[in-house]
Specification:
heterodimer; A: 252 residues; mainly alpha; globular; disordered C terminus; B: 307 residues; Rossmann fold; Alpha-Beta Plaits; 2 domains; six-stranded mixed sheet; 14 strands
Chain lengths: 252, 307
């Protein structure tokens, strides 16, 4: 598994999609900052301490990062077929279930790192804006929130990561599906009942962005766990269908 | 126990209702170069994929190193190097980076394995050029480098000179020959290029429409290929009459308006020429010929040439 993880990291060298994800992270941070500086009815939102870090987290999760993480994950899984490297890998031979697991682990780590990058950017800007208002406790609270958000978003989008290779479609479809999925969270968040079940909004419940009761937190965790399970079922099905394809027609 | 590195028995592959490979019995001996010759779409790649377990077998059996590959991949694959169709690698990585990944995944122990493999195929080590910028020939070389990276006993090469320039083809042929002669590798290679098979193979299998029509050694083939005298004359009917009456010749064939093939190569051609000229038949040429692999291929497949 260690070598597979190393190989997956190597395969991402000079990857345009990884660069695009990093760009999207910086973009959303800048976008929220500009948005915060816009004065509406005489109120400059960025004047309020903590507003920027909280808003950047919300906007990133509602609009950009789930789509980018889904794209990254699907790209990593689909590329072996699309780059036609799978036949070399089969001749090594590698365990395809382990290979997929390695890809999902790397995607998970990247998801957390992307949120960590967003945290570093927003913290830097927040420090410039309201250094005196920043306490270690606040910083650690936000760090925890961002990191859990990164992990949670991975679980929330994991079925999309899995379904695209399962359907044998281009990984760009994952971007589109995840964008619709995360944007819908905007409407789901308006319902107190639904927001703890809808995976993207459930991430906010788990990370501590939403104040939740124990039951609500359990609902959020269950929703995300179900996503993870669904992804696992799809990925196992994907490996079986590939093996099945290899052994089909063994009828005569 | 036989010394076959690869043996297939009644190997069959069906796509839909159509037989792409039909009851193929193929035998590759240790240390030999086996050339699988056939037109594009004849079923060469499908056979190789079935041998490697990359595509399911509809019926029949494959034995590699005397054992069924299924369920023994971990033991068998490290002993095989293969290149099937166009080699696929990660486009955002260099050739060296690509090979380093496969070397580590295979657990290749030799520290200079990547460097040596690249050197053998004539690609630079630690070059900055990305795979996406490689020419088809360079991609093919990298594919071969990947196939030999772990020093396998058996090489399965599907159209190895595909996309190479003439110099590259010559180098690749030399290299394949060297692998066989100097390193004792067993090689199964496919090609639709007759000259390639003729130059490289010790044994050949001729495949057409999924059927292995003939499996023979090149030495036997040379024996089988008939020698004949090609005679170009101004009047074929009159010439045949003279040949039959004066020389008692029966083993000949008329090839055209002015061409005869005489299969009795012991015939005294000087006397034949003299007799024909004496009867006012002009002899444009008379030469000793040998059936080429292409002639044999045509004869076996009952069709046109391969290319």
């Amino acid at each position: 598994m260690r070598i597979l993880l190393w190989a997956e990291c190597q395969k991402l060298r000079r990857s345009n999609i990884l660069l695009l994800t990093a760009f999207a992270t910086v973009f959303i941070a800048v976008f929220v900052f500009i948005g915060g500086k816009t004065t509406v009815h005489g109120v400059d939102f960025s004047e309020s301490s903590g507003w920027y870090m909280a808003t950047a987290l919300t906007w990133a999760t509602m609009f950009i990062l789930p789509a980018m993480i889904a794209l990254l994950g699907s790209y990593m899984i689909c590329r072996e077929e699309q780059d036609d490297t799978i036949k070399h890998l089969r001749l090594v031979p590698i365990n395809e279930t382990k290979l997929t697991a390695a890809k999902m682990i790397v995607t998970f780590v990247l998801s957390v790192l992307i949120y960590l990058l967003l945290f570093i950017i927003t913290l830097a800007i927040e420090a410039v804006l309201h250094f005196s208002a920043l306490s270690i406790e606040t910083v650690l609270d936000f760090l925890k929130m961002y990191l859990i958000q990164g992990a949670g978003v991975f679980f929330a989008v994991s079925p999309i990561i899995a379904i695209v290779p399962y359907m044998k479609k281009s990984y760009w479809l994952a971007l589109l599906l995840a964008e619709i999925y995360s944007f819908s969270a905007l409407f789901m968040s308006m319902s107190n009942a639904l927001k703890h079940f809808y995976p993207i909004t459930a991430v906010f419940g788990v990370s501590g962005y939403y104040e939740t009761t124990v039951q609500e937190l359990a609902c959020c965790i269950i929703a995300l766990s179900l996503c993870g399970c669904l992804a696992a079922v799809l990925l196992v099905g994907l490996n079986h269908s590939q093996k099945g394809k290899k052994h089909e027609e063994k009828i005569i | 126990m036989n010394d076959f590195m690869i043996e297939t028995t009644q190997l069959t592959k069906m796509y839909g209702g159509q037989k792409a490979v039909n009851c193929v019995d193929l035998h590759v001996r240790k240390g030999r170069v086996y050339g699988l010759l056939g037109r594009n779409g004849a079923g060469k790649t499908t056979i190789m994929k079935m041998i490697l377990g990359l595509t399911p077998i509809t019926s029949g059996e494959v034995s590699v190193f005397g054992q069924n590959i299924k369920g023994r991949e971990k033991r068998v694959y490290p002993r095989i190097g293969a290149i099937i169709e166009t080699p696929g690698f990660y486009p955002n990585l260099t050739g060296t980076e690509n090979l380093e990944i496969f070397a580590r995944l295979r657990g290749t122990a030799a520290p200079n394995a990547v460097k040596d493999a690249l050197e053998i195929v004539g690609l630079p080590y630690k070059d900055k050029k990305l795979f996406s910028k490689y020419s088809l020939g360079m991609k093919q070389r990298l594919g071969i480098a990947n196939a030999i990276l772990h020093d396998p006993e058996l090489l399965i090469l599907d159209e190895p000179t595909n996309g190479l320039d003439p110099i590259g083809i010559a180098e690749m042929r030399e290299f394949i020959r060297k692998l066989s002669v100097e390193h004792g590798k067993t090689i199964l290679l496919s090609s639709h290029i007759l000259s390639e098979i003729a130059v490289l193979a010790d044994e050949i299998g001729i495949i057409d429409h999924g059927v292995l029509l003939e499996e023979t050694s090149m030495a036997e083939l040379e024996k089988k290929n008939s020698k004949y005298i090609l005679l170009e004359v101004s009047n074929v009917p009159k010439a045949t009459l003279i040949l039959e009456r004066q020389f008692g010749l029966k083993d000949y064939s008329v090839q055209g308006d002015q061409t005869l093939r005489i299969y009795d190569t012991a015939l005294d051609m000087a006397a034949v020429n003299k007799a024909l000229v004496m009867q006012n038949i002009a002899v444009a040429s008379s030469q000793l010929c040998n059936d080429t692999l292409e002639d044999y291929f045509k004869k076996i497949t009952g069709g046109e040439g391969i290319a």
